[in-house]
Design brief:
Length: 448
């Protein structure tokens, strides 16, 4: 059931620009923007606050079922809502993996009346389930691990990849690292103990080979492809030169935009993720790719492990780090520093994920759109402390960072789910509905 709420005097981030005004939601949908003469529901004085379209995180790992000691759908979604995220798309490399219709239905059942944000789930490709990926319904996309990472899913043989791309009816997303090169590199550096070698072993070439291969498959089969967690300058350059045909989109992560290889000396295996955090030249290229539209959106690849697991030596420690709760504050801090505009942020974190995955009614502030809102205080300054986080992992690579700009209220369909630092009783997310567009061309430039 949708709610009623009215905000007075907020800064509103619209797709056409940033304006000051009111916003009203009735029965879960936006009914008025501008000067609202007849408020509905609770009336909130939002002067000094900014309202964004509800932030969507299109790549998280909430570890349920099978690894709930790291995270589960409830704790992960609480972290999302506390971070201003109104919807998330969750990955299939759980135990068991989400690679059967029964496993997908199980996840949807587990999420009901537990998730504090709207939810959707990817369907995992295996070497022999192309008949399922061709007919799956209710998933946001098909996830293909072209290189081995966390979990058991891996599809690297050409004939299996061809079958998945030939049959897919929904977007295909890829973890783009080349398995053959990874095996060669791990053999070459067998016995390495320096965490800084993670980015050397899983090198830019491994990523570029896989991305080129995936794009070739998408072009030959004319299927929508989304390249996950782009991490290299080489991939940005390759994708920039492609025709803007709407067939291929990509994303990057705040970790890549704020951290670089120099942090391995301080964070060790806590910085280890796949693909790796790399040198500054890659970070610069990723920022440039976002600003020129080559990279469409921002995800987090929230992939929590316990502190005990991450403290294991290099070679034994798992890859991945939490991120869903801090992605918006990090990007608001980027706005405060002048790296991008608040309109860029809304495009990358709300509008583009909605367009890529066909989330009709989400990702924008417009009359008739869903009343999913992220309310932020762009002047609020806070320091990141693990004790304040809601993820079960209980740590962050950004511990001790002071950031300017934080969410203060998260609204699902006109009903606040998180406000004033606390969760609102009885407010939960709903399953997302997907109507994927066959093509997603690059968005026009916005003023920075």
């Amino acid at each position: 059931m949708g709610g009623d709420i009215t905000f007075r005097g907020a800064e509103l981030v619209l797709s056409t620009g940033v304006v000051d005004g009111d916003l009203a939601v009735r029965d879960g949908r936006i009914v008025a923007i501008g000067a609202v003469e007849q408020p509905v529901g609770e009336v909130i004085d939002a002067r000094g606050l900014t309202i964004l379209p509800g932030v969507i995180d299109p790549q998280v790992h909430f570890r349920e079922p099978g690894n709930e000691h790291k995270e589960d759908l409830e704790t992960g979604s609480r972290a999302a809502a506390a971070g201003g995220v109104t919807a998330f798309l969750e990955m299939p490399n759980t135990r068991p993996p989400t690679s059967t219709f029964a496993a997908l239905e199980d996840k949807l059942a587990r999420a009901q009346d537990r998730c504090r944000a709207h939810y959707g789930f990817f369907f995992g490709a295996t070497p022999d389930n192309a008949d399922l990926t061709a007919t799956v319904e209710g998933a946001c996309g098909i996830k293909i691990f072209m290189g081995s990472s966390t979990g058991t899913l891996l599809v690297n043989e050409q004939d299996a990849l061809e079958r998945h791309f030939a049959g897919a009816r929904i977007p295909i997303t890829v973890h783009a690292e080349d398995e053959a090169r990874l095996r060669e590199r791990y053999a070459r550096y067998a016995g390495a103990t320096d965490p800084g070698l993670h980015a050397v072993i899983r090198d830019p070439q491994a990523a570029l080979i896989a991305t080129r291969r995936a794009v070739d498959l998408a072009e030959r089969h004319q299927k929508r492809l989304h390249v996950l967690h782009l991490s290299t300058a080489e991939e940005v350059a390759f994708l920039r030169e492609r025709p803007d045909d709407g067939l291929v989109t990509t994303e990057t992560l705040p970790q890549y935009l704020w951290l670089d290889a120099s942090w391995y000396a301080k964070l060790g295996t806590h910085l280890q993720m796949n693909p790796p955090v790399r040198d500054l030249r890659h970070q610069r290229a990723l920022w440039a790719g976002l600003l020129d539209g080559t990279i469409a959106c921002i995800a987090t690849d929230h992939a929590p492990h316990t502190l005990e697991e991450k403290a294991l030596p290099f070679g034994e420690a798992p890859s991945g780090m939490p991120g869903v709760e801090l992605s918006l504050p990090l990007m608001l801090n980027a706005v405060a520093e002048g790296r991008c505009s608040i309109q860029h942020l809304a495009r990358w974190m709300s509008e583009a994920p909605a367009r890529i995955y066909g989330l009709t009614g989400k990702g924008r502030l417009a009359v008739g759109a869903d009343g999913d809102l992220t309310v932020v205080d762009r002047k609020l300054v806070r320091t990141v402390h693990a004790d304040d986080l809601h993820t079960r992992a209980g740590w962050s690579p950004f511990e001790g960072w002071t950031l300017r700009g934080w969410p203060v209220m998260t609204v699902l369909g006109g009903r606040p789910v998180f406000r004033d630092g606390a969760f609102v009783e009885g407010v939960f997310g709903a399953p997302l509905r997907f109507d994927p567009a066959p093509r997603v061309p690059r968005a026009p430039a916005v003023a920075s």
